[in-house]
């Protein structure tokens, strides 16, 4: 039985930052994640994807962000149960919880923080004949290592941030980048849309809208795509080495959906007036997995939610203690092993 103060389900950026905020309060954390490594989607799906909205970082690769978060929480020695999925939860008479994974590992904690991101997910695939034939033979649904596409002809389909950001990034890597979207308008950030238009004007990106890919061609390896103009119905063959449809992910909460939590549109409803607690006292949901009026699915919002969650968790775990908030710039971090590090200090001074 693994015992901890806060059991965090999900080891993505929000879950990792929660470890830091909890550590400042001298609370111990343990994380469960179905993936074999910490970092969530940032580590597993797009470690080389640049992120632009992390405060203090004009640009940071997703994998580097995870590395920095892991370094930041090192003094607080979190525990990890990786490669296992949180399966069942039991609430004990004293109000604490036991969470058991699909492999039978049991965890005991007074507070649960669900930071599962989008949950388990599968890529949304286009409805194309013989699509499976070309998977791993020119067709991919995510980009883990951009160098694979160096000096290749790449066609990306999609109209969201991922399609725009990867088109921009690969413009300096691939021999040729083509972006196809079924509408003239994009759903991504305005800055990214403008950047794509600029690269189109510079001849670095071929932009085809409104259009969609309707056929794949090639013997065993993908060689061509047929692109149909959705306004004129005119079809054109485009020579490619790689086709990357980025139509998003189909998220599923998995077993968490059966824990008695209030669910709305595949997300967990929380109280955002105070601490992001669910309808079950002692269980919180932070990051992309939660929903509330005005919710934005951004990493920086998850960091904010994790901070307030930890403050509430401290009060729940130590109801008889008062504490005084201090700035995090008054000294160095004191690790759980007694080591000191010149950086933010524990922000809580407990008063019995």
From TrEMBL:
Q: Which InterPro entries match?
A: FAD/NAD-bd_sf (IPR036188), FAD/NAD-binding_dom (IPR023753), Fd--NADP_Rdtase_type_2 (IPR022890), Ferredoxin-NADP_redctase_2 (IPR050097)
Q: Name one Pfam family in it.
A: Pyr_redox_2
Q: Which cofactor does it need?
A: FAD
Cofactor, free-text remark: Binds 1 FAD per subunit.
EC number(s): the record gives: 1.18.1.2
Q: What class of enzyme is it?
A: oxidoreductase
Record domain FAD/NAD(P)-binding: where: 5-293
Q: Which UniProt keywords apply?
A: FAD, Flavoprotein, NADP, Oxidoreductase
**TM region(s), chain numbering:** none
Please report which protein family the annotation says this sequence is part of.
Answer: Belongs to the ferredoxin--NADP reductase type 2 family.
Q: What is this protein called?
A: Ferredoxin--NADP reductase
Source species: Flagellimonas profundi
């Amino acid at each position: 039985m693994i015992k901890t103060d806060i059991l965090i389900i999900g080891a993505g950026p929000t879950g990792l930052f929660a470890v830091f905020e909890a550590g400042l309060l001298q609370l111990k954390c343990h994380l469960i994640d179905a993936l074999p490594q910490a970092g969530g989607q940032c580590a597993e799906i797009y470690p080389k994807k640049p992120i632009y909205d992390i405060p203090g970082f004009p640009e940071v690769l997703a994998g580097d962000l995870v590395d920095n978060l892991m370094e930041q929480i090192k003094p607080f020695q979190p525990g990890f149960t990786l490669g296992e999925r949180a399966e069942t939860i039991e609430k004990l008479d004293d109000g604490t919880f036991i969470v058991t994974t699909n492999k039978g590992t049991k965890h005991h904690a007074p507070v649960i923080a669900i930071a599962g991101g989008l949950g388990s997910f599968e890529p949304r695939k286009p409805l194309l004949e013989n699509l499976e034939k070309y998977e791993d033979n020119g067709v991919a649904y995510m980009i883990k290592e951009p160098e694979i596409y160096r000096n290749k002809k790449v066609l990306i389909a999609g109209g969201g941030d991922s399609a725009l950001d990867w088109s921009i990034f690969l413009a300096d890597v691939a021999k040729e980048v083509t972006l196809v979207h079924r509408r003239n308008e994009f759903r991504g950030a305005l800055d990214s849309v403008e950047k794509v238009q600029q690269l189109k004007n510079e001849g670095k990106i071929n932009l085809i809208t409104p259009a969609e890919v309707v056929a794949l061609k090639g013997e065993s390896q993908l060689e061509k795509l047929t692109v149909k103009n959705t306004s004129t119905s005119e079809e054109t063959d485009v020579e490619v080495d790689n086709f990357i449809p980025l139509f998003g992910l189909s998220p599923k909460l998995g077993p968490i959906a059966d824990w008695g939590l209030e669910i709305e549109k595949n997300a967990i409803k929380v109280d955002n007036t105070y601490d992001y607690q669910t309808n079950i006292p002692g269980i919180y949901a932070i990051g992309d997995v939660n929903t509330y009026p005005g919710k934005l699915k951004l990493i920086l919002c998850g960091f904010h939610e994790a901070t307030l969650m930890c403050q509430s968790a401290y009060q729940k775990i130590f109801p008889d203690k008062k504490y005084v908030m201090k700035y995090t710039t008054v000294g160095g971090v004191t690790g759980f092993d007694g080591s000191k590090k010149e950086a933010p200090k524990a922000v809580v001074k407990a008063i019995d």
